[in-house]
Design a protein that fits this description.
The complex is a heterotrimer of chains A (358), B (259) and C (304). Chain B has helices at residues 2-29, 46-53, 55-88, 92-103, 106-119, 126-149, 154-162, 167-195, 199-204, 212-217, 226-249, 251-254. With 259 residues, chain B is mostly helical. Chain B has a single domain, classed as MetI-like fold, CATH 1.10.3720.10. In chain C, 74% of the residues lie in helices and 0% in strands. The chains are: A alpha/beta (358), B mainly alpha (259), C mainly alpha (304). Chains B and C meet through α1, α3, α4, α5 and α6 of B and α1, α3, α4, α5 and α7 of C.
């Protein structure tokens, strides 16, 4: 039969693929894509004389689902605060050996000692973003719409001017948080009555929205198909960079709603099954150094809880309130708390109702 | 008769246009001087240059190709056997086992395979991904092969056996050539499914395993840059080349035998 | 030298095991076993922080419940989303059939030299990555592209407002058809390829016109291919989530999206399993129904 030697070779290759990879000196980093500058990785690899093996996820819940099903082999993870809460309470993390993390003193104390991880036993802050409004400066100014309130996303009297040109995030947690803030409640409010009010607000605004979109909205904003988005500060910053690079005549700006917004702090943690916790601690300490931490901010416009990093960050970035919120704003920003199963179920049911178009 | 062929040609050309219009955009935009896949800005070869320096992307592409070849090969063999068994005498067990992987939502299958591998203490890696891919590809091959066998002239098989051929010989010289277009069609589908799978691969991949879809989908929230267009274009060309070479080396494999 | 009376039957039995055995064994291990884990999961309770709660609670009692099932069957919203998904999948299948049949027929009728190439050309686009193909459609359907501009110009001439092509059911359907087309073309081709042209010649000699030849000869003979293609399009299309996620409108949520949500944001694996099981059973039932109808139809067609 033709091809038999070919088949045999393939079988050998397949068998080789089953062999466990020789540990060598590898740090397995499970991170968001483009959430660490390539130069930083190379510098760390030179420092530790090891190899950083990166794999990616694009959603906290993907990370949580994979770990809940029992996946192992990861050293460092970079979950957002509510996911850290779930991981800590689920017993999935290894406590940090602070004696190996001298650079932790660089972190702004406002971001340490959080309610979900008192004393930073398991996590240290890495980078941040806020969930705000992004808009096409030219179009929105033309239409005379406000950019400092959630009303522009939820109030039909403003929405009718931008019908079909608005997207919101496809995330129940983020959209409920924005609606609750708009209504004057806390983003972490768990009163069912308030949630139903939020649902009504969302349903009234939905006909004017083009889509629930968490993935391609930045592209559409940059190109000019979409004029107003509910999105992440990093993405909106990036959209403006891309728009200028493409030579567009408009700017894409960040609008911080006066009612407040969600602050998402991503943290470095070590998984309980980490094959190389020593390398993991070395990496975390390395990333807590100001210069290394600043590289990500300079790359993607992410917020930075590291005070030592300020002197390495491009000065113009320090002026963005959405990236480096001033004191008055900090009080209005809230980090999302994880929900209980019953609350998650209720929220999911309400979300289904919203999206099924009833 | 010429008139009917004309309509057939028009409809078929329309079909090819539908298939290729987006592909033309994919290829053209691989030369787009813009980070986003949204609008034409200018011509550049930069993305190809970047691709060849992007070890991660190249490794991912290599992994996808490898898994695709292994998965399509094994699932074609198993699927052809399943299709033949279904044709000869279909049991409920066989039909359910073959059809359900096609129906079951990928995320369920991904999570359940991960739990299963963890229970067995099976190290996740390329192998776990390949095993998962084979599982969901078998059904596609089986259904195509069975459709090909339906209405096939049993008399030919009988004749082969009456001439003293063993079942193995009858298969190799009579059945296999006759079902070959079905087998090839099934193999092509299996390969396509494997190199583009995301959800099941996400859950069954190991801590150091990256395939091309995993790499690309993780970029979805930032920007799927034209480097992805570049790697896709090259992957298509490479696969086309491989198939052309394979068909030159064993012409009898791809062509259906004329009776 | 004919063997004894019982031997051919035994040999046939053994051959059936040899042929059917390996795929069944493989699927039992790598599909049925994992799937059963999740079927069991549909009776369990979601974990406090995700995943599943332990099977045995601290008192040693088994933690099983029908709660997820009752929730599904008592809440009409899920049935609505299901029906919408069935509708989308049906439209996709019919469109794929209409578009794919001429393609498959053309390839099947081509000379041997061109046939392989034409077949490869059908599948080639699908070796590029799914995401950028969808992004290409976003460009084609975007408000600034030629298609949208033409449609809006026509709409404007009737006094209607601009019609959104992107982020709409239209965009979802176009991409659904695009993504599933090869899975209709390939099985159809595999079937059409073996049609004997002599049958068509005979029909023509008997005075049948072009359409009649197609409808009374070709189509009935191709029915197994049609059913195979329809199954390979309809069933996967039922569970799809990525396309509505990327370019659907605010109302375009299908059952696949709901299922994904249960496993991710909601961390309600039991409920996600229930939705999946219902989807799978519905898909298999519809496939069985179509096969039963098809078996009766084929008989009738062949007799004609």
């Amino acid at each position: 039969m033709p091809g038999r030697p070919f088949l045999r070779a393939l079988a050998v290759l397949a068998a080789l693929a089953c062999l466990p990879v020789h540990a060598a000196d590898q740090l397995h980093l499970y991170n968001w894509n483009n959430y660490i500058a390539p130069e930083t990785v190379k510098r760390f690899e030179a420092t530790c004389k090891c190899e950083v093996v990166q794999t990616y996820y694009s959603d906290n819940e993907e990370l949580l689902a994979k770990l809940a099903a029992g996946a192992t082999g990861y050293d460092v993870l970079v979950p957002t605060s509510n996911a850290v809460e779930a991981l800590i309470r689920g017993g999935q993390l290894k406590p940090l050996d602070k004696s190996k993390l001298p650079n932790i003193r660089n972190v702004d104390p406002a971001y340490l000692n959080t309610p979900f991880d008192p004393g930073n036993q398991y996590s240290v802050p890495y980078a941040m973003s806020t969930t705000i409004i992004g808009y096409n400066e030219e179009k929105i100014k033309e239409l005379g719409l406000p950019t400092d309130t959630w009303a522009v996303i939820f109030d039909p009297k403003y929405l009718q001017k931008v019908k079909g040109r608005v997207t919101v995030l496809d995330s129940a947690n983020e959209l409920f948080a924005a609606a609750l803030k708009y209504l004057g409640y806390s983003a972490n409010d768990i009163d069912e009555k308030h949630w139903r009010e939020a649902v009504d607000v969302i349903k009234k605004a939905k006909p004017y929205w083009a889509a629930f979109n968490a993935s391609s909205y930045i592209k559409e904003l940059t190109v000019g198909n979409i004029w107003l988005v509910h999105g992440y500060s990093n993405d909106i910053f990036q959209a403006n960079q891309d728009a200028q690079a493409a030579g567009r005549k408009f700017h894409i700006l960040q609008g911080i709603p006066k009612e407040g917004a969600v602050l998402a702090v991503d943290n470095m943690v070590i998984h309980k099954s980490a094959p190389r916790p020593d390398l993991a601690l070395m990496f975390i300490n390395f990333m807590l150094d100001g210069r290394n931490s600043a590289e990500l901010t300079n790359l993607i416009g992410s917020g930075n809880p590291n005070l030592d990093a300020r002197k390495y960050i491009k000065p113009e970035l320090l002026k963005y309130p959405a990236i480096f919120p001033p004191k008055e704003l900090q009080s209005k920003l809230e980090q999302l708390k994880d929900l209980t199963p019953a609350q998650r179920r209720l929220r999911s049911r309400l979300w289904t109702e919203i999206k099924a178009g009833r | 008769m010429r008139k009917r062929n004309y309509w057939l040609w028009v409809a078929a050309i329309g079909g090819y246009l539908f298939l290729y219009l987006p592909l033309v955009i994919v290829i053209v935009y691989s030369f787009n001087d813009s980070r986003l896949n949204a609008e034409w800005v200018g011509f550049t070869l930069d993305w190809y240059r970047r691709l060849f320096q992007d070890e991660a992307m190249l490794t991912a592409a290599g992994n996808s190709l490898f898994i695709g070849l292994v998965a399509s090969l094994v699932s074609t063999v198993l699927g052809t056997m399943a299709g033949m068994a279904m044709h000869r005498r279909s049991t409920v067990l066989l039909s359910v086992l073959v059809l359900t992987p096609i129906a079951i939502p990928e995320i369920l299958m991904g999570v359940s395979l991960l739990i299963f591998f963890v229970l067995l203490n099976f190290t996740l890696g390329l192998a776990s991904v390949a095993l998962a891919h084979i599982a969901f590809c078998i059904g596609f091959v089986a259904i195509v092969v069975r459709a090909r066998l339906a209405g096939m002239d049993e008399a030919l098989l009988e004749a082969a056996r009456d001439c003293g051929a063993s079942p193995a010989q009858a298969f190799r010289h009579v059945t296999l050539p006759l079902i070959m277009p079905g087998v090839v069609a099934g193999a092509l589908m299996a390969f396509t499914l494997s190199i583009d799978d995301f959800v099941i691969t996400f859950f069954t991949a190991g801590a150091g395993t990256v395939t091309l879809p995993l790499q690309i989908y993780s970029m979805i929230k930032i920007a799927v840059t034209p480097e992805v267009n570049a790697v896709s274009t090259l992957l298509m060309l490479l696969t086309l080349l491989l198939i052309v070479i394979a068909s030159r080396l064993s012409p009898s494999m791809l062509r259906a035998q004329q009776e | 030298m004919r063997p004894g009376a019982g031997a051919p039957a035994r040999e046939a039995q053994r051959n059936r095991w040899l042929v059917g055995g390996p795929p069944v064994a493989y699927l039992l291990v790598f599909f049925a076993a994992p799937a059963l884990i999740m079927v069991l999961a549909s009776f369990r309770i979601p974990g406090e922080f995700g995943g599943l709660a332990p099977l045995f609670d601290p008192a040693g009692e088994v933690n099983l419940t029908l709660e997820a099932y009752t929730r599904f069957f008592t809440d009409p919203v899920y049935a609505e989303v299901f029906l919408k998904s069935v509708l989308y999948a049906l439209v996709t299948t019919l469109a794929c059939l209409a578009l794919g049949y001429p393609l498959a027929a053309l390839i099947a009728r081509s000379g041997k030299r061109h046939r392989d190439l034409l077949l490869l050309l059908v599948i080639l686009p699908f070796w590029s990555n799914f995401l950028i193909r969808i992004y290409a459609w976003m460009i084609l359907l975007g408000p600034q592209a030629a298609l949208a501009r033409t449609v809006n110009a026509i709409a404007a001439s009737f006094g209607a407002g601009p019609v959104p092509l992107l982020f709409s059911p239209f965009a979802v359907l176009v991409c659904l058809v695009y993504v599933h087309l090869p899975f209709m073309v390939l099985p159809l081709y595999a079937n059409l390829e073996k049609h004997d042209p002599a049958l068509l010649d005979a029909a023509r000699d008997l005075g049948a016109g072009g359409w009649q030849r197609f409808w009374r000869v070709t189509f009935p003979l191709s029915l197994p291919g049609v059913y195979a293609g329809a199954a390979l399009v309809f069933i996967p299309a039922l569970g799809i989530f990525a396309i509505p996620d990327i370019l659907g409108g605010p109302d375009d949520t299908l059952i696949g999206n709901l299922i994904k949500q249960q496993f991710l944001e909601t961390r309600d694996w039991p409920f996600g399993s229930v939705l999946s099981i219902v989807l799978t059973v519905a898909a298999l039932a519809l496939a069985a129904l179509a096969a039963w109808v098809g078996r009766r139809g084929v008989g009738r067609g062949v007799r004609a």
